[in-house]
Design goal:
Length: 113
């Protein structure tokens, strides 16, 4: 199955201590006060997961039609756009978990090891 905006939101909020907020006019998802994902940027058909560059490269290799770097320095730093209709739920779940772990406080990230 492929991802919808509601499915993206559910995945993000299913992670421990994840909360929804807003950033620059679109929903964001945070853990420990740090953003790990956003929805609706650059438009409603996209999400973003905040990966490390090596993680970004892996997901782009696994699903090049679904994952791509954001523009400019944000993308080079690992911000990865997700084309929702092209992303498979299982692959996005793995990317979302990686982004969550990158942002989560260590004590929390270790609870999912």
């Amino acid at each position: 199955p492929h991802v919808t905006p509601d499915g993206f939101r559910r995945l993000a909020l299913s992670l421990p201590e994840a909360v929804e907020g807003a950033h620059m006019g679109h929903p964001d998802f945070r853990v420990g006060g740090k953003i790990f994902a956003t929805l609706g940027s650059p438009d409603a058909s996209h999400g973003m997961v905040k990966l490390k560059p090596d993680q970004q490269a892996l997901f782009m290799q696994v699903a090049p039609d679904a994952f791509m770097p954001a523009k400019g320095g944000w993308g080079r730093a690992g911000s990865t756009l997700v084309v929702l209709k092209r992303a498979k739920v299982a692959t996005l779940r793995d990317a979302m978990l990686a982004a969550w772990r990158n942002a989560a406080p260590r004590r929390l990230a270790e609870t999912l090891d």
